[in-house]
Design goal:
The structure is a homodimer of 451-residue chains. Chain A folds into three domains: 202 residues, FAD/NAD(P)-binding domain; 107 residues, FAD/NAD(P)-binding domain, CATH 3.50.50; 107 residues, FAD/NAD-linked reductase, C-terminal dimerisation domain (Enolase-like, domain 1, 2-Layer Sandwich). In chain A, 31% of the residues lie in helices and 29% in strands. Chain A is built from 13 helices and 26 strands. In chain A, α1 runs parallel beside α5, α1 runs parallel beside α8 and α3 packs antiparallel against α5. The termini of chain A are far apart. Chains A and B meet through α3, α4, β3, α5 and α8 of A and α3, α4, β3, α5 and α8 of B.
């Protein structure tokens, strides 16, 4: 019997869409080719948080050792950690499958081969099966990018998925790409004992972040002993007798036990023949969507694969929105408001809304106010005094917040509320922040002199 | 020359009032008898956070050891920690004095002896001096309570101020009083190595908190090996040859190297002859204030001493409000909105707004929704899966939030925004929480089934 809604991909976008559809009594089929939870649960957000959680004690101890208030030794058991992470992921996937079943969603384990307007072909086992539906939600996600000459061999040269299964901490780790994926994993392996060499083509690490944030991160990681090279181009990367060997265009060479390739992500839209539906596919395969997240008259396209915002919570929001649109609950364009982004570890970063450079480019009447983390007693108590909080004001209202330092990812949700509501200085002044908190670093930035 | 505003007490209420007054060009005198920063900076919020920050590595390691993913040894250097804390407090007090000076506030080091309507007597050095003013802000704060038979001798029986200067971790620590002060300090000494015995007269620990929060805390502390006795009355507490000896009314006896008395706080209003002004003084000396925070026609009374809310951020809010009222900027009654409260450490608690029991008492149409911390991946990553987030809904709007567990104090400010704005279920549903975060434990509670 045909479904009302046919969802392809069981990551955050597809899974949350399926649950939202089931809740509304919509007959729903969900196709997943590998693991429920997608990249986020299986090879991204969640496993990296398990790794970073496991070295949080080391990060805390670092702060106290620096202040000479404590000393000690902590031994990480990486095989045990990897196994525990694996058990957690398995249990979560099982719980997700059970939730889908309970909600009445038909879960198909298979791979989409060809998409059509109202029917699609899925390979289930080895057999092609045809599924019919009223509408489809395409939520096939993304995968680690590989470039010519920059390819994971899954032995010495690893992608961000491979490296999560390492059972031995490499003595030396070469990290290619200083976006959040590279930086979070480098932080983990650094604290676990790897010597880190970080290579980035852009002129600064965390190149999508505010410049002051990049600079503070750079200082922190230098203090952690990382060898950082920015604005460099790679001539060759190879597996030389089981070790990674990297040559820069300027001739410099680096060797390491392992290399992590973290050079961005690519959309999972290969061979789907989306163009047959009239969908527009851009660049490496990013699927263009209209203001209602539709790629064609019957196909929504949500999550990473549409290239809008490669973040799990953005994907979930889009997936749920598509269901509500399908259900006729809303018809206005999709306007999610400001979407926060974080990097976890020690230090952390957060960002939401419009950053300074963008605000200036757009010709806004921009004012900036700041606070330094060193002035916050909680940061002081943890011996982690680097970093800052930076507020961007446009026409007298808060339009953006970013921060870098101890625990600042915990400011992301609060910052999102304030930015999405466009708080004024007066509103901030009249609001009571609890004391003493890290949140007061945000308060200090909000109330600081704006210029 | 007489001041416009005469402020007594340099804690959060008085200091923030003085800075707010100076900013408005009000001629201001601030009297402080001991240390700028008051109890919060010198014997309360801040030093306890330094202690808890120093054992955060131990708390994190505990979580990993429990999961068998790490092992290790951490040695705290208590004298070094106490000295570092001392240096931080001194530097902060110096910065506060400099800020007052720069702002043009006259700082008088002395003790208020007698308060009058438009002039007061202050002992400066050994000399009484008379200060004249238009209005006074009384912000004299509170001090650790002592009861007959329950008195600190500052040797074996310590109050919450004394214990901060210990340079040796007691092998055993008896904690009398299971409010936040007792529980935070007990957490620190427990992780630093003391065997903890906790004694509380109320039927449960953290008796002012939601019952489910108390219960979860109790479980956590039991797992940490504490010997907890609730609903008990003390017959005797004494220093027996340099050790603390406690006898309960039921005859049971406990001995320990040290005893911490944390049995509440008392207002600093002794011998001020406030009654001469027509002020009403209640109970142990709590000063009654009207809807404009006034104790008499020329005297505002703010912070702990008025007994409204014994929290630093409430005190600051009141102090600033009094200045704005004096300046004629506002005339409506003081309505601060919901004031958050937290306990720090591992586990933590947070609370803001109306709790379940109060909401039911008030006859509201109450619904409760919850999430368990075990379902949050960040809590899982830290191996700290106890606790919950609990939302209280009244007439379809969020009226209260409380939580207990790993890092939940970071939910306090966010919770305060949501409660003060009275968010609906629909608003929560449409808001994008960043993933993965601890804040999603709040999201899960907000969106959970309400009954």
């Amino acid at each position: 019997m045909p479904s009302d809604l046919f969802i392809v991909g069981g990551g955050p976008a597809g899974y949350d869409a399926a649950m939202a559809a089931a809740k509304r009594g919509i007959k729903t089929t969900l196709v997943e080719k590998e693991h429920l939870g997608g990249s986020c649960l299986n090879w991204g957000c969640i496993p990296t948080k398990f790794l970073l959680g496991a070295v949080a004690s080391l990060a805390e101890l670092e702060g106290q050792v620096k202040m000479k208030t404590a000393s000690g030794q902590i031994q990480l058991d990486l095989p045990a950690l990897v196994d525990r992470k694996k058990r957690h992921l398995e249990a979560t996937r099982k719980a997700m499958a059970a939730a889908l079943d309970k909600a009445g969603v038909q879960l198909v384990r298979g791979e989409l081969k060809m998409i059509g307007a109202v029917k699609s072909v899925v390979t289930v086992g080895d057999e092609p099966q045809v599924f019919e539906y009223k509408r489809c939600i395409l939520a096939t996600g993304s995968r680690p990018a590989a470039h010519p000459g920059l390819k994971a061999d899954h032995d010495a040269i690893l992608n961000s998925g491979d490296i999560l299964s390492l059972r031995e901490v490499p003595k030396s780790l070469l990290v290619v790409g200083a976006g959040f994926i590279g930086l979070e994993l480098a932080q983990f392996f650094s604290r676990a004992g790897s010597a880190i060499t970080l290579v980035e083509a852009a002129p600064r690490i965390a190149p999508s972040e505010d410049e002051e944030v990049s600079k503070a991160l750079h200082q922190s990681f230098k203090r952690m002993g990382w060898d950082i090279h920015t604005g460099v181009r790679i001539a060759a990367l190879e597996n030389a007798a089981g070790r990674a060997r990297l040559v820069l265009e300027d001739g410099r060479e680096f060797g390491a036990d392992k290399c992590l390739l973290a050079v961005g992500r690519l959309p999972n839209s290969r061979n789907l023949m989306l163009e047959m539906l009239g969908a527009e596919v851009k660049g490496a395969g990013w699927v263009h969507t209209d203001e209602h997240l539709m790629a064609s008259p019957t196909v929504y396209c949500v999550g990473d694969v549409n290239g809008r915002t490669l973040l799990a919570h953005a994907a979930s929001s889009q997936g749920e929105w598509a269901v509500r649109h399908f259900a006729g609950e809303l018809s206005d364009p999709y306007e999610p408001g400001p979407i926060p982004g974080c990097m976890y570890g020690a230090p952390e970063t957060m960002r939401v809304g419009i950053m300074e450079a963008q605000a200036r480019e757009e010709g806004m009447d921009v004012k900036i106010s700041r606070s330094q983390m060193v002035a916050n007693p909680i940061a002081q108590a943890h011996g982690a005094t680097g970093g800052l909080v930076k507020c961007v004001w446009g026409e007298g209202r808060l339009v953006g917040v970013t921060a870098v330092g101890h625990g600042v990812a915990s400011l992301a949700t609060l910052g999102t509320v304030l930015v999405s509501q466009g708080w004024t200085h007066k509103q901030c002044e009249e609001f009571i922040f609890p004391h003493p908190t890290l949140d007061e670093a945000l308060k200090a930035a909000l109330l600081g002199p704006a210029a």
